[in-house]
Amino acid sequence: MGAMFRSEEMVLCQLFVQPEAAYVSMYELGEAGIAQFRDLNPHVNDFQRRYVSEVRRCSEMERKLRWVAGELPEPPPPPKPERCSLSPREINILEERIDFIESEIQEITRNARNLKSDYLALIELRTLIEKMQTFFQDHSAQRKISASVQIYNNDAVLGHLGFISGVVTTARVPAFEKMLWRISHGNIFFKQAQIDEPLKDPITGHELQKTVFVVFFHGEQIKLRVKKVCHGFKATLYPCPATYKDQLDMLAGVGTRIKDLEMVLEQTENHRRLVLTNIARDISTWMVAVRKEKAIYHTLNMFSMDIVKKCLIAECWVPRKDLTAVQKALENGVKASGSPIPSILHYVPTNEIPPTFNRTNKFTRGFQNLIDSYGIASYREVNPALYTIITFPFLFAVMFGDVGHGIIMTAFAAILVIYEKRFLKIKTDNEIWNIFFGGRYIILLMGIFSIYTGLIYNDMFSKSLNIFGTSWRNVYEDGVLRNHTMLELDPKTAYTQTPYPFGLDPAWQFASNNIIFLNSFKMKLSIIFGVIHMAFGVTMSVVNFNFFRKPEMIFLQYIPQILFLLLLFWYLCLLMFMKWIMYSAVSEDPSLGTSCAPSVLIIFINMMLMKSSEDKPPCRAMMYAGQNEVQRTFLAIAFLCIPIMLFGKPIYKAFLAKKRKQYQQGVETGEVTEKEGHDGGLAEELITQCIHTIEYVLGAVSHTASYLRLWALSLAHAQLSAVLWQRVLVMGMGPPGVTSIKLYIIFAVWAFFTLAILVLMEGLSAFLHTLRLHWVEFMSKFYEGQGYAFAPFSFTDILENEEDDHKPVMETNGGPPE
Amino acid sequence: MGASFIPITVFTVLWGIVGIVCPFFAPKGPNRGIIQVVLMLTAATCWLFWLCAYMAQMNPLIGPRLDNETLIWMAHTWFKQPLMPVKGQQNREVKLAESSTFP
Amino acid sequence: MACKFCGPKLSLCGLVLSVWGIIQLTLMGVFYYIRAVALLEDLPLDEHHHSMDSFITNVETGYTQNAYNCWIAALLYVITLVVSGHQFWMNNRSSVSM
Q1: CA A77 to chain centre
Q2: B94: chain C residues, CB-CB within 8 Å
Q3: Where are the bilayer-spanning segments (chain A) (predicted)?
């Protein structure tokens, strides 16, 4: 039955590996992803394990690499697909290289920063001098000052006025000025000018608004005070020559220095870019190597040492099919290390429940996920995902049946499937997109089945296709046609007696009573498929009983259950089929005519209530002779099944226990295998069984009714799409001309609502109802779902998860500093 | 009995081929079983679905109730019936009558 | 780019809508043209007809009119397709060149 029928057989293996060989072996196992290791030192603290230093080293390298990656101007290209493990020597080299690169980049960054602050200072100085020149020149009154200053500067002893110039943040200027005023009791002259072009902070890269100022004062004491204030306000002071000529000289000097610095800065930037581009190609590959390394040591930490500390002991779950691969990995490890002692693998018999592992491919994974989100299957029990591949899209399509909507859905999924490789490369965090993309094969099948069911329902955007020619004909004369607005075609005369060969007759689309017809058809359909689906589920339990060597359960549980279901509910379905075949508008026997057609539901209810109804000539109360007797028998058998379900298993167990006891007494073995120790006794067993039985019996009724959701949703879908067509799209119909533009717009509106409401919303609701039908109605009949998933040591999983974990970190690590 | 032989045979054989013959020719490999199950289930569900729709219409107990305009147009295009003008009633309007049903 | 006026998402949306519109409106036009009964309900018909023949002619003109109406709307969608296709191409090109 293929790979998906039940989960794979798992073996608990014990590995004895030489520490030298362990690394390579683990690398191969990690690539293959086939072994789930168990932690053999659960009580040992993380920091006391054997390979802590290696793990820490790897973490350090990872951190550095992440930092370097953050420095890159653009995200690094994806890693090269390299499939070779790094030897410890290579790792050392890599570590050195990473260290070197990190320090180099750090140094370059630091240098660039220093250069930039120098550059900033020079720029500030240049602007300062330029502004100063205007200060000194602009006003005739200031000539005096300037003269005094010259005197002051020329001869310090004689001095009258001194001045200090500098640059301060614009926001602080008012406070700064006030403070200067205060400390000098008004004996200063303050002049300021804002620097027009904003400067960039070399460290943060933010823009700075600064203002040039100059303070004139008198006396040495005030000078000290002013300096202190400047210091307090974090103003940068620059020496500025007082004479115009000196200023010009200085300006020229500053200009050349700025030019030099610009050149140096550019060179530094180029060098930095060179270094970064050199490593950009490799950085992802290194990252992968380092992460793999870390994962390997992390796993090695779970191993225990033998007493003489000569070899590592590991325990792992491995699928039986992959044992040879594990063996091969071990051998390769030994070969690579050159150690003379081979690694040993042997199986450990255990009572523990192994993990559940279903091998999936890209097609089956989506379906397996649907099942797994309900509960991981118990080890080796029947996996419903196999049947879900078809039953899920089919039941969905019963509710969603519409050719047009099916085509839209199929087209969408087909694009996802055809271009899946391209889409796989674009990894996004968009959760909705990921859900759709993950379920692309489910959506594709749902779409295809919707087209089929749509064809059967003969429904395309609520319009019918008359492909094979309707089987109804007009029997009315012209006059009658004109005198009556509503005419009902009589099946006796107007029906050609050959049904429309595929799907529903297109004549029903226009009928004002089509709901009556559709309801009766779709309800019966729902019940028929529901009962078959449930019977299928109950029958699945036989496979489980067979496999787990519980043949008695087939008689004690399966047969009563299936009898109960079939005798009552499949009988109901049979009655429906009989009604379809037996009763006809053209039958000669009046008791099989239109007026005598019984309601199947009422017959069924009467059967349950054991009521017998009277004949009302020409109709008969029953559909066939002896029906009453047959029904009574069925009912009796069905109800007899209940006590078997209820008491069968507990009595059997009690009987078994008694027999075993007798046997033990007979043999008189000294050791008592007290394995059946859970002596809850008969009472507890009875209570559980009672709950199960009630659940099943009530479930049979309620679950059958629950399948009516197939009818309800498909009806709602058909009605909604009809309303949308009649209320929206028809608005655009009319003679060509202006209405064409109206149609152009109306069509867009109609398309939007079709997509949003009918395909997306209705599709989602049908999806959820289908999910429920599978989880509750189908799987409750046989599925335990008590297992735990197989989580192998696999690099692909680890790398994917880590990427998710680190993404936000990478982002906050942030933009490259300027 | 309103069943006719051809459609039943055609669709049964069609889905029979899909569900019974095709599984034998499923490509060999680890997924052979899955493909077989998929084919068989598809055929079974689709066939049963078609069958239900077919049987539900085999012996109709009610007929569609139609608007007279629709019926006239259906008669005109689908059934290719010649219109049967009745003398003396030609001047009466189609929508004149009250919404009475017939029969 | 002076003539780039919608972003990648809008142009893709326009592309999909116009492809859908062209296919469906053309087909609907065809079905109207061959007088498909299923579409009879959509015709804007007069309430009263004096004779069967006038009713038939009325219906037929209604069908023909709707057919042309649909085809013209389909043509409008062809224009939309061209415009949004151009926009889409522009967006793609600019994103590649960057």
Answers
A1: 24
A2: 48-49, 52, 55
A3: 386-419, 439-457, 525-548, 554-578, 630-652, 745-771
B54 close to A (CB below 8 A): yes
pLDDT of amino acid A146: 54
Within 8 A of B103 by CB-CB distance, chain A residues are 488, 490
A760 and A776 together in one domain: yes
Total tally of structural domains belonging to chain A: 3
- Distance, in angstroms, between B100 CA and closest chain C CA? 17
| pLDDT at residue number A156 | 41
Domains of chain B: total: 2
- Domain annotation covers residue A480: no
Range of the domain at A236: 112-144+159-267
User: What are the mean pLDDT values of chain A's consecutive 10-residue runs (818 residues total)?
Assistant: 78 87 85 87 82 87 85 73 67 84 86 84 82 65 53 46 80 84 79 77 74 80 82 81 77 87 87 82 82 87 80 89 88 82 85 89 90 91 92 96 94 94 82 90 96 94 88 82 83 86 90 91 95 95 91 91 94 94 85 84 90 79 87 94 91 88 67 51 86 93 95 95 91 85 92 94 95 94 91 85 53 34
Other residues' Cβ atoms within 10 Å of the Cβ of residue A777 = 21
Contact at CB, B91 and C50, closer than 8 angstroms: yes
What digits encode the pLDDT tens for the residues A305-326? 877 777 888 889 999 888 888 8
Q: Which domain holds residue B46?
A: 5-57
Do the Cβ atoms of A103 and A228 come closer than 8 Å? no
pLDDT value of position B84: 52
Q: Is residue A210 classed as helix, strand or coil in its secondary structure? A: strand
Contact predicate A97/A86, CB 8 Å: no
Residue B65: its H or E element: strand B65-67
Which of C20, C50, C63 to mutate to test binding with chain A, by most A CBs within 10 Å of its CB? Answer: C20
Report chain A residues whose CB lies below 8 A from the CB of C16. none
Q: Best of A457, A512, A743 to disrupt the C interface by mutation (most C CBs within 10 Å)?
A: A743
Cβ pair C73:A478 closer than 8 A: no
pLDDT of residue C47: 66
Q: Convert the pLDDT of each residue in A141-155 to its tens digit.
A: 455 555 555 545 544
Has residue A733 been placed in a domain? Answer: yes
- Asked whether the beta carbons of residue C69 and residue A482 sit closer than 8 angstroms, the reply is no
In a domain, B62, yes or no: no
Chain C: nearest CA to A482, how far in angstroms? 8
A446 interaction partners in chain B (CB closer than 8 Å): none
Q: Which of A91, A87, A90 is nearest to A333 (CA)?
A: A87
Q: What is the pLDDT of residue A104?
A: 85
- Indicate whether A648 and A509 sit together in one domain: yes
Residue A251, domain CATH: 3.30.70.2750
Query: Looking at the complex, does the CB of residue C41 fall below 8 Å from at least one CB of chain A?
Result: yes
User: Do the strands A189-194 and A199-200 form a parallel or antiparallel pair, or are they unpaired?
Assistant: unpaired
- Shortest CA distance from B53: residue in chain A: A503
What residues of A are in contact with residue C66 (Cβ under 8 Å)? 733-734
Q: What contacts A625, CB < 8 A, 6 or more positions away? A: none
User: Quick check: B96 pLDDT over 60?
Assistant: no
Q: Would you say the ipTM is above 0.85? A: yes
Q: Is A794 domain-assigned?
A: no
Say whether residue B57 is in contact with chain C using an 8 A CB cutoff: no
What is the spatial distance between Cα A137 and Cα A129, in angstroms, rounded to a whole number?
12
In a shared domain, residues A241 and A299: no
> Within this chain, do residues B17 and B42 fall inside the same structural domain, yes or no?
yes
Read off the tokens for A39.
Answer: 């932690």
Same domain, B51 and B83: no
Q: Which residues in chain C show pLDDT less than 50?
A: 1, 98
Per DSSP, the residues of A445-510 read: HHHHHHHHHHHHHT-BTTB---SS--SB-----HHHHHH-SEEEPPHHHHB-SS--SSSS-GGGGT
| C4 in a structural domain | no
Q: What is the pLDDT of residue A384?
A: 93
CB contact under 8 A, B74 and C37: yes
Q: Is residue C65 part of a domain?
A: yes
Residue A22 covered by a domain: yes
Residues of chain A in contact with residue C38, where contact means CB-CB under 8 angstroms, are 463-466, 506, 509
CA B43 to chain C, closest CA, distance in angstroms equals 30
Q: Give yes or no for residue B92 having a pLDDT over 60.
A: no
Same domain, A139 and A220: yes
Same domain flag for B48 and B84: no
Query: Which residues does residue A212 pair with via DSSP β-bridges, in sequence order?
Result: A167, A193
